[in-house]
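Quick check before the chapter quiz. The format below is the same one you will see on the exam, so make sure you can read both the input and the output lines.
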Amino acid sequence: MLYKTLSAPMNLQIEITTRCNNKCSYCYNFWRQDGEEAPNITMTKDQLIYVLSEAVNNEVFSVVITGGEPLLYFDLVLEAVK
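Here is the expected output.
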């Protein structure tokens, strides 16, 4: 069989926060380039646990932790890695 029907996405990107303390020139978040303030949207621990448990239950192959700068919320990054 050449193709397999997937039950879930193969990979998942979880943006823990939109906040960032850097101004990287290659960043895809357009508001940082214009000097605008990023909207401050950050996941709660409960939201993160829910999303990750759904990823595990649906056998998602890989997960990328991203943001803004996710390490601003190191406790959430540690929770995700667990």
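If your answer matched, good. The beta strands are 11-17, 62-67.
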